């Protein structure tokens, strides 16, 4: 399994590097193939009053010329070669009819231009882009090109787009060219020759046309590569859905590259209906907004407000529905409000990405840069469509930059993931190398714990046996001694008895009393039954008095309460801990003073036994600490642990040695009030 995951990581990394390299090569060739930006002149001659003067223009060194400027304009008239052209009306070409009061958005018109130039021996040509939406082109009286069907009404016309380069082989060495252009539009939001017509050497113009189509194919291919790449990534990482949405967005961008300007889609489907062409062109743009919103919402769910998200999806659905239901003459008008909606949506997404950048989300900054590129291209295209600018459309280039930066963001995210996986792999390898040693260490700990539990079980059994022996001595031998005492007294009270017998009875009673005293001392050691009768504190005070009577030391007892709220079994263990603490102090040190502290808190009972014999009287050096786990310490620890408590012992800096045990209290608040705590 680890090998499979490593293979996937290596595959992702290789594919990402290949993708980035391919995109860089594509961008380089995309600009390198645009020969029009390398033309020597920065300005071209313009037509004036329907005449374009090119007598001094050298096509061989300066290249083709755009036929821009003032053309003769005849709105709502279709004039043919041989008709009378009055030359009293002019208009700018390229232009759109909605900017001219002499004709509406729908209608027909004729344009005329005369081009004067020196005779050229090589063949010339004229190149057209997309004109809205049907046109017929005459040069020197010959019908050179007809796209669609020009008509004076909607029923007699047929719209079509077909960018082409038309050679003028039969007009070589001509010094003047009369160009007549008939245009009609009944199927789009506006009509007219909205793109420049170029005039120049056929070889140059045909190479331009071919290069433009190659650039479009490169753009389409690169976007499709990214769509397939992200689809493959999604199939490998199905839990990360944004790869699928990024693939869908790349697919929409790729399809849109087939439509504007040269309409490469016609190379694959030459008979595609005009309405379907325009609908697909608009849908690839309109559907890109909800696809981008879904992508960003999936990538930045915490930063993307759900109300904004559903507003974008709902508004995009309305634009899409308009394209599907309305004819092109109507739904093409939606492009203006759509560009406004698109700008608002993108700036909202920029806000989302700014929040992601502030939150330090991996790849958010690169996604933001890509979005800024596409916003700049949309602003440019808006001004171009409004005829405020003549820079051309850049939305497709903005799309490829957007996807490119997404690829970089993806590379950053995957690299971060790979680094985490590598760290985990190294950590796992280190753990694996030390596994045997770790197992041995843990096994030793378990064995030690088992031995400790076995020792504690032995202590518990010994404790129970000692209590049993104490109870048996108290219940059997104690009663026998008491009966012997009663028997002796009864014999003494029977009247006159021999003096010798009385002396023997008196000796027997004294011996019986001594046995009784020793017996109860032993019983007290084995099973302190007197604690329940006199109380814990009284039992400890009695032992302290006995200890001080036998040894030259003082014992101080501190206890703030008279009644200690412990059950009988717990009281016995506490009593034994105190007694063993005093015994250990005499056995292992030379104390002059022992301090016993009994503290009753809200939830814990704490006892401490401290002695000042940790320093040797002979050398003044501290006693060496006993090894942990000694028999006496283990017994005391067991007694505390059996009631859910803790036990500790150690030397103080002042030369004292302290044992401490804490035991949870089970008494209620009312009991505490009764004790006056």
Task: Fill in the keyword field for this structure.
seven-stranded mixed β-sheet, 677 residues, five-stranded mixed β-sheet, disordered C terminus, 19 helices
Overview of the molecule:
With 677 residues, this protein is of the alpha+beta class. Helix content is 54%, strand content 15%. The strands form three sheets. Strands 1, 3, 4, 5, 7, 8 and 10 form a seven-stranded mixed sheet that branches. A five-stranded mixed sheet has the order 12-13-14-16-15, with helices on one face. Helix 3 (202-236) packs antiparallel against helix 4 (242-256) and helix 3 runs parallel beside helix 12 (395-433). The longest helix is centred in the C-terminal third of the chain and has 58 residues, at 435-492. The two termini are 65 Å apart.
